[in-house]
Amino acid sequence: MDRVDLSIDDIPTRWYNVLPDLPRLPEKYIDNSTGAPVTREYLERLMVRAMAGQESSLERWVTIPEQVRDAYRMWRPTPLIRAVALERELRTPAQIWFKYEASSPTGSHKLNSAIAQAYFAKRDGHRRLVTDTGAGQWGSALALACRLMDLDLLVFMVRASYHQKPYRRHLMETYGAEVRPSPGGATRFGRRLLGESPDHPGSEATAVSEAIECVHDDAGSRLAVGAFTNFCLLHHSVIGLETRRQLESIGRSPDYLIASVGCGSNLGGLALPFLEDKLNGADITILAAEPEACAPLTHGEYRLDFADSEGRAPGVHTYTLGHDFVPPPIHAGGLRYHGCAPLVGLIRREGLLDAVAYPQTEVFKAGAEFARLQGYLPAPETAHAIRAVIEVADECKRTGRDATIVFSYSGHGLLDLPAYGRYNAGLLRDVEAEDFVAPRLEGIAV
Amino acid sequence: MDRVDLSIDDIPTRWYNVLPDLPRLPEKYIDNSTGAPVTREYLERLMVRAMAGQESSLERWVTIPEQVRDAYRMWRPTPLIRAVALERELRTPAQIWFKYEASSPTGSHKLNSAIAQAYFAKRDGHRRLVTDTGAGQWGSALALACRLMDLDLLVFMVRASYHQKPYRRHLMETYGAEVRPSPGGATRFGRRLLGESPDHPGSEATAVSEAIECVHDDAGSRLAVGAFTNFCLLHHSVIGLETRRQLESIGRSPDYLIASVGCGSNLGGLALPFLEDKLNGADITILAAEPEACAPLTHGEYRLDFADSEGRAPGVHTYTLGHDFVPPPIHAGGLRYHGCAPLVGLIRREGLLDAVAYPQTEVFKAGAEFARLQGYLPAPETAHAIRAVIEVADECKRTGRDATIVFSYSGHGLLDLPAYGRYNAGLLRDVEAEDFVAPRLEGIAV
Lengths: 446, 446
Known about the structure:
The structure is a homodimer. Chain A has helices at 40-46, 49-56, 66-72, 84-90, 111-123, 137-149, 159-164, 166-174, 188-196, 204-217, 230-235, 237-249, 265-271, 275-279, 296-299, 342-349, 360-374, 380-399, 417-424; strands at 3-4, 14-16, 61-63, 80-82, 95-100, 128-133, 152-158, 178-182, 221-223, 256-260, 285-291, 301-306, 315-320, 354-358, 404-409. By secondary structure, chain A is of the alpha/beta class. In chain A, the strands form 4 sheets. Chain A has a 7-stranded mixed β-sheet with strand order 1-4-5-15-10-11-14, with helices on both faces. Chain A has a 4-stranded parallel β-sheet with strand order 8-7-6-9, sandwiched between helices. Chain A binds chain B through residues 2-3, 5, 7-8, 73-74, 81, 103, 105-107, 144, 147-148, 166-171, 173-176, 368, 371-372, 374-377, 414-415, 417-418, 420-421, 424, and chain B through 1-3, 5, 7-8, 73-74, 81, 103, 105-107, 144, 147-148, 166-171, 173-176, 368, 371-372, 374-377, 414-415, 417-418, 420-421, 424. Chains A, B: InterPro entries: Trp_synth_b-like (IPR006316), Trp_synth_beta/beta-like (IPR023026), TrpB-like_PALP (IPR001926), TrpB-like_PALP_sf (IPR036052). Chains A, B: It holds the Pfam family PALP.
């Protein structure tokens, strides 16, 4: 069998919450203004009320609301596909399977949590969500989710992407979202940054700061979060839960679970539902693939740091390169973030997560090879996972191990084709020169 | 049930050939150099040998080769999805279902025939396929197919798209195809056109002429055809065959079968497998949706005409606007062709096919509304079908008819987002001004 489908009735009815199964709980979030752990009141002012609750819930299973499950029926369950041609090319005895999350209407796994957050925001009576997005995968997923749940949305999009990669901005706007560049003129923080540095390209961290400022200024708004938080990883557990069922149906269990990591939402979604097996002695390697240019798990340190660039977001304990680290302009925009989700940092700290980092040219080589062999063109983010899969499969060839390798195909690369074009033309470099030139401020939206 | 999936084992084992079930056979192709019907030898020099045979075969069922079916397993069967939110919005008693062909790795139905043509080309010992493409849907499908079947490919891409819509060109090149703009310097015909008119934007018809010239000049090459031919519609019959099975599983039969028509490959694929029911008295309306700016079925006449702009392709009887008609630069590049497939022309001529044409702004309005309601962003081509569906569903509301409307969701619109951006900004016009400015010829590929 080269593809394992589930029936539409097999969409999970419950999310899996890993917190009660962890060796220890994550450190509490810190209120940077007081240095003390954040209060429930603080969180509920910042986030959707239900999310503040899910963030620290110790319930192992959380029922998926019927309306969320209904929306999941647009594209879930997603197929588990065997990369037969890649196996053949690598002459590996391992089996390589990928969980194909790119079939969602917005093209990535992000919709799993977007729909949940929009649903709860509506249910809890909030009028508007505000969020940040890099290349726009999260923003477009949330834009669709807010449309489906009849909710307003304001998106701060990293300024370089806003101007240079307008496709996903058009998609967000088609869904009805308001999209502003970050830094930009919509917030005091954005105006200050632009004042200091009119060419500032922005980053996820500046966009989070602006989003939080907007939430503070408007009682009807709450912050939506595309990765990082525990509840976000909770929602993405549908990825791993379906994968488990699909593997069981063909009598296999995973030896390797591999995903790219920016913050860790797709890694968490795929791997955390298998963590208890690992803790109970199953020989499972969980492997995070990072960009060499921005690799907190590989090159960062585990400590308290800000989640945004200004310190408005709570302080968290995790692996970080420092909140003032400005990631170089690699094409995998979704991986340009200085830290990783506290839960992902914690399992790394506990020795349950391996990590590896690759330079951009190797990543695109792997992505292009995968497209030629398997037909599907991966997002640069996803191509990091594929690069790691190739390394593991090669190792299996050397050792003769017929391992079961499962990776998260988190998104397609159709809106990243200019970067593949640069790769095809031999122009791509490991770290691209900073070629962002900010548009002149007169006459355009800042 | 809001989505009907089939099992991977339900991929059809045979294509359906409508020719033996037609009221009369299509007129023979004409050799423009002699005025007489083309010979089998002529066709076999132009096309893959097996294709020349399939073109006039009267076998009702044609076995799908195992290797083609294997490749179909990448994404087939495709789901049949009910557009519940659209029904609700329109307050129509009709049920609206769409056959979702956009889940193929290249994003449209085109891969159904691309894989077949590449398979037979390889089997029949040809070294290379040569083809034309407009916006690139067909070219990227064939590029993947040729890669899977280990075959060379040369694609002539309409020059305006080559320069202004490079995404699908990058995709073709990632799959390993050679892509040249048409008109361009690769052929005598291309050089002549550019000599006369250096800013010539090209069209499907110029690209076909250049492709045929290359095939004539190279004995190892054959022409691959993305629409138009009988064999192409044969391959796409998997769309309608699966749809029939899906509808049967929920106890429904179609009252309306709706698709956009450029040449008619997705209309033919969806509708022809139901034609016999219609001929046997079933009350089925088959409806073609065309762009007002290029509507051979609505505004053309049925007569003998060239399939390309130079008269190198065979002459055919069909509905045409004239082979020298240069379609205005609407965004639905896949519908910019002066004529339609002879089989589609024939069923129109026989009164079995209705047609309707819409201006571009109405089409984008329908496409954007569909995205907001159903999540999936349709290609501008597909949005034509959606516009027609809305009209039919509104009519059902007036008459109170709970009809079953089925339409072909032929492709996604993710690579057409700049056009949606223009629509969102209120800049889109029914016929866009000819804003193609040919790049200067020095220093770039022509």
